[in-house]
Amino acid sequence: MSKPGRIRPLVLLLPATAMAAVCGWLQHVLGARAELADEPYRPTVRFFGRGGPEELRQALVQTGSAPSEAGSVARAAWRRLGEGRASFVVVASTTGAFHHVTAYRAKRRVVVGRDARGVRLSETAERLAAAEGKVRGSLLDSLSAAGVPSELAQDFLDMFRWSMDPSDDPKDGDRFRLVWSERVAGQQAYGRKLEAAAYDGAATGRHSGMRWDDEFFDRKGRSLRRRYLRAPMRYLAISSPFGKLRFSRLGWPMRRHRGTDYMAPTGTPIVCVADGTVSFIGAKPSYGNLVRVRHTGGWETCYGHLSRYGPGVRRSGAVRQGQVLGYVGATGNATGPHLHFELRRDGRTEDYRAAELPDAPLRKASRPTRFKARWRELFDL
Asked: Which of 134, 205, 141 is nearest to 172 (CA)?
């Protein structure tokens, strides 16, 4: 990336918020992503501290800024803050390139940032943006073609992971729409967060959701979260569905497949579909490396042919929905890398993709009047 010319600090004075809001903002910064002018950018909080301009200057130098740039940024921030100590966060890329600093004290918050032309004076604002389109081939490629920032694609999939299997359900012609918030400094956008989304598909029907109290809810204010995920992993194809007649390893007799085989590259993460307790972890002759999880109501899920187990997974240990149990492999009698996944109820296998699974009590959105107003604001955008 080319070096900036004459340094012109960006300084913005913003109204302060209560401590809870500051903590929420810090979480927002920690998860922020953006792109620099001419290189892929992944912001990382490199320093979080408190002090005066000299402490900020030292923090910038430690994270990779040139001493002259660090001094200019620190002086610019304290000209607006005034004398005294302040808390500050330095956000830089993995290469050490300075992106922005936020310093705050009492009722003042100052942002010093960089845009495509270097460190310079600019305006900062928060805005809403939206994109929509149709699925053509891959869902992820379709999101990108519609102008959805890459860092929001996974958030979109996560929003609907209880109602949509992203590896199988999307079909050509399905429609989607996303609304997100972002902060803008000059021509540089950062700190994007998915606020609302909708998906209308041939296989899925219509689903929509909005962020509220840091969780997603549907139009009627019901949480999108369910007790069971639609699938235990992202996969390429279902190589052997439940109930398919197959020859045994000895060639005869034919047997019905008691699970679902999800084909994916070796090492693909496999997650637990629901909260539960590990009832078995170890090797079995046909399953290879296997994890069984016991759930409430007599339900159990099995994950076989793993190449290795997930961190912290142990017998009798509690596991949470979405926790990595292991990684795709070809152990046991597998002829290629895939996950053999079983659902059992009181010891009998059932088709996971067709079973009527129990659901958790629905959580309702708080402040329903404000919720409805926010819904109209986002979906009328």
From this structure: 134
Band (282; pLDDT cuts 50, 70, 90)? very high
- The confidence score (pLDDT) of residue 113 equals 75
Overall average pLDDT of the 107-135 stretch: 73
CATH topology of domain 237-350: Glucose Permease (Domain IIA) (2.70.70)
Which residue, chain included where needed, has tokens 């992944």? 42
pTM: 0.64
**Cβ-proximal residues to 179 (8 Å cutoff; 6+ apart), any chain:** 128, 129, 130, 194, 195, 196, 197, 378, 379, 381
Task: For residue 376, give the nearest of 234, 219, 170 by alpha carbon.
Answer: 219
Distance CA 323, CA 311 (A): 9
**Single-letter amino acid code for the residue at 303:** Y
Q: In angstroms, rounded to a whole number, what is the distance separating the alpha carbons of residues 93 and 224? A: 34
Give the pLDDT confidence score for residue 39 in this predicted structure.
36
* Alpha-carbon span 245 to 256, nearest angstrom: 4
Alpha carbon dihedral 183, 186, 188, 192, in 10-degree steps, equals 10
User: Do residues 164 and 207 lie in contact, with contact meaning Cβ atoms separated by under 8 Å?
Assistant: yes
Distance CA 36, CA 94 (A): 12
- Measured between its terminal Cα atoms, the distance across the chain in Å is 36
Mean pLDDT of 267-295: 97
DSSP H or E stretch at residue 90 = strand 86-92
Task: Enter the tokens of residue 104.
Answer: 């705050």
The mean pLDDT of 110-137, rounded to a whole number, is 75
The boundaries of every CATH 3.10.450.350 domain in the chain are: 126-226+364-379
| CATH 2.70.70.10 intervals, the chain | 237-350
- Amino acid occupying residue 190: Y
Burial grade of 186 (CB within 10 A; 0-12, 13-18, 19 or more): middle
The Cα 350–Cα 348 span in angstroms is 7
pLDDT, position 370? 94
Q: Which residues pair with 284 in a beta bridge?
A: 288
Quick one: which H or E segment has residue 366? none
Level-2 CATH architecture, domain 126-226+364-379: Roll (3.10)
Task: Return the H-helix or E-strand segment holding 355.
Answer: none
